[in-house]
Amino acid sequence: MPDNIRASVQIAPRTHQLQEFPRPVIGPDDGLMRVEACGICGSDLEQYEDHGGRRTEPCIAGHESLGIIEEIGERASQRWGVKSGDRVALESYLPCRSCDMCARGEFMSCRTGSFAYGFFPTSREPSLWGGYAECIYLHPNTLLHKVSQDIPAEVAVLYNPLGAGVRWACHLGGVGEGDTLLVLGAGQRGIAAVIAARAAGAANVIVTGLARDASKLALAREFGASHTIDVEAEDTVERVKQITDGKLCDVVLDVTPMALEPVNHAIECVRHGGRVVLAGLKGRRPMQFSPDAVIQKGATVVGAFGVDSRAYKEAISIIESGRFPLEKLHTHSFSLEDTPRAIETLQSDGDAVCVSVHPNG
Amino acid sequence: MPDNIRASVQIAPRTHQLQEFPRPVIGPDDGLMRVEACGICGSDLEQYEDHGGRRTEPCIAGHESLGIIEEIGERASQRWGVKSGDRVALESYLPCRSCDMCARGEFMSCRTGSFAYGFFPTSREPSLWGGYAECIYLHPNTLLHKVSQDIPAEVAVLYNPLGAGVRWACHLGGVGEGDTLLVLGAGQRGIAAVIAARAAGAANVIVTGLARDASKLALAREFGASHTIDVEAEDTVERVKQITDGKLCDVVLDVTPMALEPVNHAIECVRHGGRVVLAGLKGRRPMQFSPDAVIQKGATVVGAFGVDSRAYKEAISIIESGRFPLEKLHTHSFSLEDTPRAIETLQSDGDAVCVSVHPNG
Amino acid sequence: MPDNIRASVQIAPRTHQLQEFPRPVIGPDDGLMRVEACGICGSDLEQYEDHGGRRTEPCIAGHESLGIIEEIGERASQRWGVKSGDRVALESYLPCRSCDMCARGEFMSCRTGSFAYGFFPTSREPSLWGGYAECIYLHPNTLLHKVSQDIPAEVAVLYNPLGAGVRWACHLGGVGEGDTLLVLGAGQRGIAAVIAARAAGAANVIVTGLARDASKLALAREFGASHTIDVEAEDTVERVKQITDGKLCDVVLDVTPMALEPVNHAIECVRHGGRVVLAGLKGRRPMQFSPDAVIQKGATVVGAFGVDSRAYKEAISIIESGRFPLEKLHTHSFSLEDTPRAIETLQSDGDAVCVSVHPNG
Amino acid sequence: MPDNIRASVQIAPRTHQLQEFPRPVIGPDDGLMRVEACGICGSDLEQYEDHGGRRTEPCIAGHESLGIIEEIGERASQRWGVKSGDRVALESYLPCRSCDMCARGEFMSCRTGSFAYGFFPTSREPSLWGGYAECIYLHPNTLLHKVSQDIPAEVAVLYNPLGAGVRWACHLGGVGEGDTLLVLGAGQRGIAAVIAARAAGAANVIVTGLARDASKLALAREFGASHTIDVEAEDTVERVKQITDGKLCDVVLDVTPMALEPVNHAIECVRHGGRVVLAGLKGRRPMQFSPDAVIQKGATVVGAFGVDSRAYKEAISIIESGRFPLEKLHTHSFSLEDTPRAIETLQSDGDAVCVSVHPNG
Known about the structure:
The structure is a homotetramer. Chain A has helices spanning 42-49, 74-80, 100-103, 153-156, 159-172, 188-199, 214-222, 236-243, 261-269, 291-297, 309-321, 339-348; strands spanning 4-12, 15-22, 31-39, 65-72, 87-90, 93-94, 114-115, 135-138, 144-146, 180-184, 204-209, 227-230, 249-254, 270-278, 287-289, 300-303, 330-335, 354-358.
């Protein structure tokens, strides 16, 4: 590894520039990771567009990084239980681990926490806060997970969408052996939820998509979806009643971005006492909603904020178990120089499911 | 107890008639209870009005009954663990206890269950299905709880609203030692939630009400509310931020009937990772709602359907402990003949909090 | 089905007699099931020997019954959600469903409950309380589960040992995705726990056995055990430390009958904060045990009493999913006449894992 | 505060020496606390005796410290949410907050964690690791809780034993509204458990003690124990059966040090499906124990290792609520110079319940 580290820096909306940064000096509590692969999700697209132009400061984006420990302090090595040469997956969130919420183990509700990786500006020392770079800095508060080196990098990097699938479907939704799950939306998060639910023993997993999602719905079936619904050709609620013999679903997960109708479908399709998980952001748009529908069913509606360590750990276990053909989920790889093209591919290529940047080739 | 049992039968909307029914023959698995007191809640008001006129069949209403076991079968006595002369409180819901939901202990989601007490028509044998009667029939599936006879009947009958307070604030909301609860609405259920939350150790309980609820808000403070808000004079959200020093509330419970604004207040006032419990029905009216508000906060919204055995048991424990001046919650008692006036009092007397009918004087 | 029903009645220790009983009259709340298969477990062996001679009354044993609904009352059909001709699996335990524990959904701690199926004497009407008979009576309180008819009876009847595996390893032990489980004992319950744990995503499952259990340990590996230990050739604790790289096990389940040493091995092999499940009865024999070992580790030790509805439901889901070659778990089938030989086979044939009686051929 | 800080240093078993240490330089992530009071518990007694003589290094003991923030770094102030002049209570345990157990919020099972406060030697910079000193160092990983200054220091310092009561009785034992708890042992931890259980709504709390504990049993009754048992005059198990009308206890907590008999009493006195919490260390001595007793009851036995943040937070809420006369729990206060006498008082004065050292007078 040379003394200078190359990175794809976002300097303006939809504009990246390759820049070099000095290799940081590592002390006893921190480290440096050589990035093997960095995944891309919807947040990256928003960040790339930056319509509001609020993020004027240059920044290395990329918050789904996988790589090899290049250098690590002695205390950090002991705490994290990893050493130079180990492969690790990073969490993007840096909780303070000291406030009252963190002290209770509720890191996701940290009073001071923030998404660090992929979002801190390069002006903040030591600049290397994003995965679209040859190396990423390991801050002492970083949460990371060891991953087996036997797995191809483009599969191992799926720990991030799969972590979301585990947390949203299984932990927040409570999907377990024999349950029926309805997933509204057939993107990478939707398919990841199918995998997580099947890994947990779900008996029936129904997935909805648009007509143009046909190939993604086919992929969902390959990963164990028992039924798929083309919402442009069929009435979602009627079809779900038919499939479930009127018993409706134990859990419904909405991962559709911007669409409001699925939220009411979710409430209509969940059984009495069931759980609805909302994970698809709607651009702050409001919708018509009847509180009585939730009350009469004794239903629970959960907002899915982020992914926690337990979910990442289980996602990595699913990956390492080799019990799903996860390579089919990965559709595109790009070099560091092509980072903008990687993001644009996820944005506009209808066949793109999981896309990753591989900064070291 | 004579051979004929008198009851106040609802024969048309807002119309009751005193009728007599033969005393039922009790077998090994059922029983008969002499009603000491029967409480009244919002459901009774709806039933009394019966605007839709759907319930054309005569019916003995009253689903919050407390009384003395008059006669009981041998097997029933063993199962329920009570005998003739014992005082018991009845649950209104009769789950089948055999379907898959009941087998898992989720009686409230029983696939075939229904509110029996207070809702079955008199045409269904043996007619005595409601609390506005000298005696009520104990069906073999009845769920009942023994209550100490040392407590005045008008206090013991509060097991019903207090059970709702326990389930909604503590079980569904998760209120515990040191928590901050916001209760939207100052009726009997709202004040019951204050009591339940304080019994569970809540450090701060904030209650909202209208200007005309001034006496009920004062009562809430007597039962341990730390702050009350007159929503006509103050901005609820701003006031909650001020009271909580910006930390917002761990749990928010909405018990306002028909009002939609409080649902959005609830979501605005709950902290990241907190819980919102919706218990106030809105007449099926829809509202403007932003899913992102729930997602960004990682909040959980729970529909409060009914009250379960665990909550009734804890409510009775609170009553028997004598640690709250519950007699202040009870404002009016009526005789069997005055059942319609009892219902109308709760409906239109602004000072009425808990009202009960005492069929045996 | 003829009017008389044949059964293998235990009339003395190790002595059965074929007897005929009149077909019971079925009312609205009960039913009759034609037995396809009845499994055998350790409790059957104890019952067969009846060393104490306490159970002097004749009895039809067999509490793991699978069969076809022969006749069913109208209300029973509605409650259970099944009809004549459906295949169902019976729970052996008949909770009262009325006491305070049952009302809370804790049926296993029912204050009046008892093992009915396989244990009630024939003197109790209508005699047909056991699975070693052409038909079994469906008491109104029976808990039953619908099972697909596409599965061979000798596989479907595995719902019982597999239900134990699910409850003991996953529900009481908490085994989930990525966890490490140690199972002490390689009998049918031990192997069932391997299956349940792998279905729940356990990353590592270690199973111990005696030298003579070699074929059962091989079967455990076929079902997904990652390591097996011959406790006569290896030191269990040392080997577990080696396999887990010193991290020990998240969960340890002891199913060894009569052996005391495994209980201490369990505590030594569980990690800090982990869970130990004890399911192997020891004939009331005491052992040397150090409370400090449990305290210093912050460990939880759970006594596994019976199997509940949720576990049976999940076991049936695993069976119906077809994701394990469960036919390998079943080793012997016998006719009704050969019931004693079936029991003796499980008792003394080292290769017997799961054995069943098929009363209707 | 002068530049030199005085401390009572343990230099040999039962031997303290007053020493002075330079005031540490505080950076952005740490702080310094002026000790108001430091409580004493059984661990302090063991440390004072140090029979094994293993801890040869000089050390400032005292791990139950309460005090005023004297100096604090800017980042530390933001993370902890406190500033100079605030009163805080310290947790003694310093988890790494980075290992897999900590990442899951299970700090008590931290793979690298240790009791820092009261146990690190003075040779470790900056020496001030114990509460028997004018000031204590606030390491960046310290977990601390803000406490109201309206409460006398000798009451506020009870956060430590009360935290144990909350965790052991309520969190690990699950005591809630209406439950029956048996506490074996009437020392400070036993009485703290009575308080915690009553705060959580326990209906019945039974406490056992020796004849010489008469005054402590009386104190337990003052704090809400419904019954007390002199184990030298009465048979514990028989008396519990009598008090509970044969229903036994939902939860049993053993806090007796060194005694083995209570562990078996605990198992005999817990109801089917109930929980036993073991918190009294037995000097690694083994006992006779029957696994079947735990299995047949479906009981859960939990080893109580330490106290976590959630429990401390709830204990402080109980203290701040003022709903118990906690000043009666505190029996003795000593100056810094008298630290050895403080420890010896708890050790040998039968009337001592909670004893504290007040290093700044």
